[in-house]
Every structure is written in C-alpha cells, then in structure tokens.
Amino acid sequence: MLDLACGSGRHLRWLAASGFRLTGVDRDAAAVAPLRALAEIEVADLEGAAWPLPGRRFDAVLVANYLWRPLLPRIVEALAEGGVLIYETFAAGNESVGRPARADFLLQPGELLRATPGLRVVSYEDGFLDAPRRFVQRIAAVASPPAAAEPPRYPLAGPAGGAG
Fold first, then answer.
1. Cis ω on the peptide bond leading into residue 132 (within 30° of 0)?
2. Rounded CA gap, 153 and 2, in Å?
3. Is the pLDDT of residue 163 over 90?
C-alpha cells in the first residue's frame, strides 16, 4: 500500500498497526524519519522532481489532504490490477471557511471523477464537513481487476443483518 504525501504518518501508523505492508512518500525527511521502523519510506519532492516510484504498482494508494494536479495520472497508474484508490482533499468552497484557500489547492466540482478515468468508482462525495469545518472531495475507486467468472462484490454498509 502506498501512502502518498504521508507527512508525519497519521494514516501510515494506523495502517501499519493494522498489519498492512506500506510505502510512504513525503518530502519532509525529518517528519518521516520515525516512520522508517513501520514502512518503506521514500523522501521525495513530489512536485519538483521525477516520480519516485517508477514502474511500481500498489494494491492500494491513499492520498489525504494533498493536491498536485500533475501527479493525478501517476497516482492512477500506480494502482495494480484490482488496486484501490482512496483520495480525499480540499475542494472549492474551502476558501470561505479557512485554509487552503488558493484555487491551486482546491479541487473543482467533479475533478476527482475526471482524474480517475478507467477506474470503477465505488464511492464519491463532494461537499462540506462540519468538524473541522471544511469542503472536501473524496473518492474510493478500483482499478480494473483481472477477468473473473463473477463480477467483483463491494460490500455496502446497511442496517444490521441486511443490505443497504
């Protein structure tokens, strides 16, 4: 699993404790230094240098609170067949409640959907969260899995004991 722009490892730590094998990437060497015991760590400038993981594919890619549009195609390409993308970051409207406020760092309506061609969208949201107050866009999407006799099943949450 790849945690892109992992920072000090809020998600990486939880995933490692849950038994996932992880690769974390961030430009801040000091922030990721303590994570080396938990995961493979790559210190890389995602915005000013070449993609740090050429040819590598991951069963899952997680991106939270980070946006650099030129990387969006690379992120999709980093998914292995059947791999899952989980991406959440700030969206247009956030400038009315706080930072980030620059359009460069805010997704436009439907932008994550347009940035993930060829992926099967399992969940997508674009809206406002109250605690803390922020506008976000988030997507969970799956790269085309290998051909199977039956279609993949993505369980949905619903009432106890039944489907939603």
1. yes
2. 23
3. no
